[in-house]
From TrEMBL:
Pfam families: adh_short_C2. SMART domains: PKS_KR. Belongs to the short-chain dehydrogenases/reductases (SDR) family. Residues 10-190 form the Ketoreductase domain. GO terms for biological process: monocarboxylic acid metabolic process. This is Gluconate 5-dehydrogenase. It comes from Mucilaginibacter yixingensis. The chain crosses the membrane at residues 137-158. Keywords: Membrane, Transmembrane, Transmembrane helix.
Length: 252
């Protein structure tokens, strides 16, 4: 049964794979035999990440929010590395502000990174997967798509919209054996998460009180779930929204 999780020889693209959750996913994929490609905006971070990932991991400096560049980026990657078998839309940024203080520009900037660019990149990759009659696409949503939270209106809107995008893609691409699923990480240890909560002790305590496991998750927790959904072990699973949250969504 372990062999069914093997993705040896497959090309996996993980956006925002240099740190945090994306890095954890990239590590899991590489350990399972995939040729992993990570993207990000900071070359020094990417260089350090691929050195730690090993197993032939590669990186491309690419700002995913630049939608007009994405078709050429996908074309280049497939020519230089190979057909993309797995896509993980993970790249993102955070904005902690009450709605009353969030400007139109800030709102749009979050949508650009978390939703609009995901649509564009997924379309380019899914169309190629469709022609090859195989592929797995993962969208990284959030617990903010499950429960209402203050001070994250733009982030919440984008991450909730990803669920609709996932379902629409599932309906359109399943006939071509392209699977599309979404993961909703809970509170997972990362620089972005700690930046968001460390300055707000009350919010941090409230979060911890909601987690039955009484601890934050680790990037590998998301990486292992992503590996399952991307592997043949999940070959009949598509259109799934999977919270990985230590029980937070259902806890009391």
């Amino acid at each position: 049964m372990i062999d069914i999780l093997n993705i040896n020889g497959r090309v996996a693209l993980v956006t925002g794979g240099g740190t945090g959750i994306g890095f954890g996913i990239a590590q899991s994929f590489a350990a399972a035999g995939a040729t992993v490609v990570i993207t990000g905006r900071r070359e020094d971070v990417l260089q350090e990440a691929v050195a730690q990932i090993g197993n032939g991991a590669r990186y491309y400096v690419q700002d995913i929010s630049k939608q007009t560049e994405l078709p050429a980026f996908v074309e280049r990657l497939e020519k230089e590395v190979g057909p993309i078998d797995i896509l993980v839309n993970n790249a993102g940024q955070h904005l902690k502000k009450f709605m009353r203080d969030t400007t139109d520009q800030e709102f749009l900037a979050l949508l650009q990174v978390h939703l609009l660019s995901v649509f564009s990149l997924s379309r380019e990759v899914a169309n190629r997967m469709s022609a090859r009659k195989r592929g797995s696409i993962l969208l990284i949503s959030s617990m903010s798509a499950v429960m209402g939270m203050t001070q994250v209106v733009a982030y919440t809107t984008a991450k909730t919209a990803l669920i609709g995008l996932m379902r629409a893609m599932m309906a359109e691409y399943s006939a071509d054996n392209v699977r599309v699923n979404a993961i909703a990480p809970g509170w997972i240890e990362s620089d972005m998460m700690f930046k968001a909560i460390n300055a707000d002790e009350q919010r941090k305590n409230k979060i911890m009180s909601r987690i039955p496991f009484n601890r934050f998750g680790k990037p590998k927790d998301i990486g292992n779930a992503a590996l399952f959904l991307a592997s043949d072990a999940a070959e009949y699973i598509t259109g799934v929204f999977l919270p990985i949250d230590g029980g937070a969504a259902g806890g009391f």
